[in-house]
Design goal:
- The structure holds 3 protein chains of 3 kinds.
- Chain A is mainly alpha-helical.
- Chain A has helices spanning about 20-25, 30-55, 65-85, 90-115, 120-145, 155-160, 165-185, 190-195, 200-205, 210-230, 235-245, 255-275, 285-300, 305-330, 340-345, 360-380, 385-390, 405-415.
- Helix content of chain A is about 70%, strand content about 0%.
- The longest helix of chain A is centred in the N-terminal third of the chain and has 26 residues, at about 30-55.
- In chain A, about 50% of the residues are buried.
- In chain B, about 30% of the residues lie in helices and about 20% in strands.
- The N and C termini of chain B lie far apart (about 45 Å).
- In chain C, about 75% of the residues lie in helices and about 0% in strands.
- Chain C has helices at about 5-35, 40-60, 65-90, 90-115, 125-130, 150, 155-175, 175-185, 185-190, 195-220, 220-235, 240-270, 280-295.
- The chains are: A mainly alpha, B alpha/beta, C mainly alpha.
- Chains in contact: A-B, A-C, B-C.
- Chains A and C meet through helix 3, helix 4, helix 5, helix 11 and helix 13 of A and helix 2, helix 3, helix 4, helix 5 and helix 11 of C.
Chain lengths: ~425, ~270, ~300
């Protein structure tokens, strides 16, 4: 049955001092082959990052997974056809054409299922993924029974090849990625609009469905091009991880696309360099791991959407809310129930240990109450509708109205009330 | 120091000095935000038992949020609530909630009668067998909302108003003491509206408390005993005659209602 | 074909295939309705890293540590995916994609780094299993079913898979009502006091257990097909959840039987000598069944608007 698969060792580079080698690799000093791999990988990473972003923004990230798995039957059929026609089954161009065709069929099936049946999109993705892959496995085993050795290299499509790469392979990858980038450049505006707001795009007359297919077609092209170097399971990583990473840094979809491209290209470049600098480091996985590191750093430390920033922001906000509510309760002689509120008031020196308001606390409470009354007036007056819309319970009224307007309001509501102890 | 919420009753002691029923829903200092934007800020609320209360306010005023926070569906930034004088978790069997229709998958493989029987979950538990009387109860609830003939339909085959009635039937099956409904009359036909209000009034006659997030100011004084006006902050609370006035409406709706409208609306009472 | 041929060579693989398919299809019904169908995809991809780590830690290719490693990887992945989803506010599909591809990359790296020349780790086996090899050579015919001596040499995958199927079925039977309500209307379920978060996690963990148990027989990638295709096909045959579960069991069994037979005997009928991958064929057959249900199923059209529309 299935023959054991052994990982092919990287034979190109056996150098001892890895840091120096790494530096050389990053600076493209390691020779023609390594340079080509690095540049090709960077182009692939960039193209993958950008194409994947559109799918990610459309909430269809895992379509990449289905497309990549759907290439397997095509690879098998192409191999069989080429062998049947008397050629070498492993001709890369032929295999890639086959993979593109079956991925295309997979895309069509996914589409058909989502539009014509009650199945949801994730079900369609999973069905195509698993069934096409299963059929591909059947074909692989058929090929295996044709004779040992002929299928060597086909497994490379599953898990990617190691650092050794033929010139022709690198050229295909660089060329294919460059073409994908060109298409993206040309079509970026309609694709961006559809990714961001498909209903608006449809209302503007854009053929949303066709642009969706274009996005998926780009992903398919990148997948096919990257299959040989990264393998079909890891190309999905390159399509998804840079996009998710980029999302942490900006709310604007056009910037997400650019950052994803840069992140993908950088991960691929650095990953290829690391892989070249030491033996036993296959290119595909290293690139994926580098991009994952970038992802984790972004998740934790990105300024707005990062976890650290969110935690700090929430704490600050909670404190403001509790303080404000506490002051209002003091001013209105209402009991304070929440221990957190009392703690915060005490720490700010606004109440004493026994819960009674201090001098400072009474002054602040009186101000808070006065502001509430001012806001009440503002929110019930049509003339101040714009200002009223900014009310959120915490906002200082001085930031919204001029001193003149405020003194006019004060005239209506009367003088400030003192808060007794 | 922090005290527990006082048990509040607005009815006073009865003549025989019987213990008072705690308020079906008492909320203190509730603040709920979506991200950094407060939807509900420092709100206090005390629902009077055995009455129909409307929660009204402009769009985005936090009406639905108030209800969801009271039920523990969204977490508050601060504040707390009590149901019949006890924490929410202890009293779940006495509350029924009819949400807005938006978040259901209408394609789900379930029939109308199955949906109503979901209301009997507390009684049945995980493994309880469905007996004849459970089916009878479910059918009765469907009949009460006028959907008895639709028991075996798949729910996606119903119109919006019919779906709303099925969810009300589910709440009836729960046999609760406090009913919370989120915009039950929004987007339904006149027949459905009539069916729903009839059921709600019958609940009130039976001594249950009903709280409704309501969107239609014109029907407030016809349908409800008490109102609770909210616009992020509480504006007013109390019987319709006292709390549903030109002043309170002006304060809640600000410039969004013309003065003539306000006069007309509050003039409908009496 | 006689009992003497069937029982030793075909009975056990068939049964294992059927049990694996049904054990995955059962939780798959709920995963499908919750739009979590692709969690099977994620779990399948992390099983390989799990067994690689287990192999590296224990140095042996024994079933026990491998299964534990796979289960550990599955649970780790589920937790990480949920963490990434919540902390990063990322949609579930993307969160799954980030985690399982990274874990898979780590696994390939580990494989390359370790010296696998002494013991070879059959990666293909992990990916698409070896159902055909789970035979019961000690059987001589139907009578062996009562022969305790022969039963001792039953392939261990069979009782393991049967037990898993029993466990999964018991879980679904026990929590049937809560699962149905919380899948249909999560907010309402919470107001009833149902712990929907724990229930959701339990469902995914049961699915992971089924996947891990099945992977040994049919490989990890094929498991996705069993999570999705039979339930999806069943969904298009009926409007009642109870009936859907029933149909999914029928379709899963059919896929397993037809797939196995076609893989084993199809090539022979076509004049070739060797069998082809049974797991792949089972997935393919389930796909064909799904296609037919999508084309001809009585309830294939949407009845109402899906959530969020």
């Amino acid at each position: 049955m299935a023959a054991g698969w052994r990982p092919r060792r990287s034979t190109s580079f056996r150098v001892c001092r890895s840091e120096l080698v790494l530096l050389d690799a990053l600076l493209l000093q390691l020779g023609y082959n390594a340079t080509l791999v690095s540049i090709g990988a960077a182009l692939l990473g960039g193209a993958a990052g950008i194409s994947g972003t559109f799918l990610f923004l459309r909430k269809r990230a895992l379509v990449s997974d289905a497309v990549s798995h759907a290439t397997l039957p095509g690879v098998g059929i192409a191999f069989l056809v080429m062998v049947f026609l008397g050629g070498d089954g492993r001709n890369l161009a032929g295999l890639l054409i086959g993979s593109a065709l079956s991925a295309g069929v997979g895309l069509l099936c996914m589409n058909w299922l989502t539009r014509n049946t009650r199945l949801a999109e994730d079900a369609a993705i999973g069905a195509v993924l698993s069934v096409f892959f299963g059929f591909g496995i059947v074909l692989l085993t058929v090929i295996q029974t044709l004779g040992v050795g002929r299928q060597a290299g086909l497994e490379g499509f599953l898990l990617g090849s190691t650092a050794g790469m033929l010139l022709s392979d690198a050229l295909i990858i660089a060329g294919g990625s460059a073409m994908a980038l060109l298409v993206i450049l040309l079509m970026r505006r309609p694709m961006m609009l559809v990714a961001f707001d498909p209903e608006y795009a449809a209302a503007r007359g854009l053929p949303v469905h066709r642009i969706d297919m274009l996005m998926m077609g780009l992903v398919m092209a990148v997948t096919v091009v990257g299959l040989k170097i990264v393998g079909l399971i890891l190309i999905v990583a390159l399509l998804i991880i840079p996009a998710v990473t980029a999302r942490f840094w900006t709310e604007r979809s056009d910037r997400v696309v650019v950052i994803a491209g840069v992140s993908g290209a950088a991960s691929a470049y650095v990953g290829a360099a690391i892989s070249a600098s030491a033996p036993n480091l296959p290119t595909g996985p290293i690139i994926v791991l580098v991009s994952f590191v970038l992802f984790v750093l972004s998740l934790l430390f990105a300024p707005n959407r990062g976890v650290l920033a969110a935690v700090l922001r929430h704490q600050r906000f909670q404190r403001r809310v509790h303080l404000r509510q506490g002051l209002l309760a003091l001013a209105q002689r209402q009991p304070i129930y929440e221990p957190l509120t009392l703690r915060l008031l005490r720490r700010a020196g606004l109440v004493r240990a026994d819960g009674v308001a201090t001098e400072k606390g009474r002054a602040r409470a009186a101000k808070a109450l006065r502001d509430e009354k001012r806001w009440e007036l503002v929110r019930s007056d049509l003339a101040h509708e714009a200002a009223a819309a900014l009310y959120d319970g915490l906002r200082e009224i001085e930031t919204v109205l001029t001193p003149d307007q405020i003194s006019e309001i004060d005239r209506c509501i009367g003088g400030p009330q003192e808060v007794s102890a | 120091m922090a005290q527990t919420v006082e048990l509040i009753s607005t009815q006073g002691a009865d003549t025989a000095g019987q213990p008072l029923e705690a308020s079906p829903l008492a909320i203190r200092g509730l603040t709920v935000t979506y991200g950094e934007k407060p939807a509900v800020f420092s709100v206090d609320m005390t629902v009077e038992p055995g009455k129909m209360t409307a929660i009204i306010g402009p769009n985005g005023a936090g009406k639905s949020t108030l209800l969801k926070a009271a039920l523990g569906i969204v977490p508050p930034v601060s504040g707390r609530g009590q149901v019949f004088g006890r924490p929410l978790e202890a009293m779940r069997s006495r509350i029924a909630y009819v949400p807005q229709r938006a978040s259901i998958d209408w394609d789900f493989p379930t029939r109308v009668i199955d949906v109503v029987m979901m209301g009997l979950y507390r009684e049945l538990g995980l493994l309880g067998r469905i007996r004849g009387h459970h089916r009878t109860v479910a059918r009765d609830c469907l009949d009460r909302v006028g959907m008895g003939d639709f028991a075996d339909r798949q729910i996606g085959q119903l119109s919006g108003g019919q779906q709303q009635r099925v969810f009300l039937a589910r709440a009836l099956a729960q046999d609760a003491d406090l009913y919370l409904l989120d915009e039950p009359f929004a987007g339904v036909d006149a027949a459905t509206e009539k069916a729903i209000i009839t059921v709600l009034k019958s609940l009130r006659e039976a001594g249950k408390s009903v709280v409704v997030v309501h969107h239609d100011l014109a029907t407030v004084s016809d349908y409800f005993d008490n109102v609770f006006l909210i616009n992020t902050r509480k504006v007013a609370e109390g019987p319709v005659a006292e709390a549903f006035t030109p002043e309170t409406l002006q304060a809640a709706y600000g410039g969004r209602l013309a003065t003539a409208q306000i006069d007309q609306l509050s003039g409908l009472q009496v | 074909m006689s009992g003497a041929e069937f029982v030793p060579l075909s009975l056990t693989p068939l049964l294992i295939g059927i049990f694996a398919a049904v054990a995955c299809a059962l939780p798959g019904n709920f995963l499908l309705l919750r739009r979590q169908a692709l969690i099977g995809d994620a779990i399948s991809h992390v099983v390989l890293p799990g067994i690689v780590v287990a192999f590296l830690l224990t140095g042996a290719i024994a079933a026990g540590p491998m299964l534990l490693g796979a289960a550990g990887a599955a649970v780790t992945a589920v937790i990480l995916i949920e963490a990434v989803r919540r902390l990063g506010r990322i949609e579930p599909g993307a969160a799954m994609g980030v985690i399982f591809t990274t874990m898979f990359a780590g696994c390939v790296l580990l494989l390359e780094q370790t010296d696998t020349s002494t013991v070879h780790l059959d990666v293909e086996h992990a990916l698409y299993g070896n159902l055909e090899s789970l035979i019961w050579l000690d059987a001589t015919g139907w009578s062996s079913l009562w022969d305790l001596e022969a039963l001792r040499y039953l392939p261990p995958e069979l009782p393991r898979m049967a037990l898993t199927l029993l466990g999964v079925a018991a879980f679904i039977a026990l929590f049937w009502r809560a699962l149905k309500i919380s899948t249909f209307d999560e907010g309402f379920a919470r107001t009833l006091g149902i712990r929907t978060d724990l229930l959701g996690l339990a469902l995914v963990i049961m699915a992971a257990i089924a996947a891990v148990a099945a992977f040994d027989a049919v490989g990890s990638i094929i498991v996705i097909a069993m999570f999705i295709c039979p339930p999806a096909a069943a969904r298009m045959m009926t409007d009642r959840l109870e009936t859907q579960i029933g149909w999914s069991v029928v379709f899963a069994t059919l896929s397993a039987v037809l797939g196995y037979v076609l893989a084993g005997y199809g090539p022979l009928w076509l004049g070739a000598a060797d069998a082809v991958s049974a797991a792949g064929m089972i997935a393919t057959v389930s796909g064909v069944i799904l296609a037919m249900a999508a084309r001809f199923g009585p309830c294939r059209r949407r009845a109402g608007a899906p959530a969020g529309v």
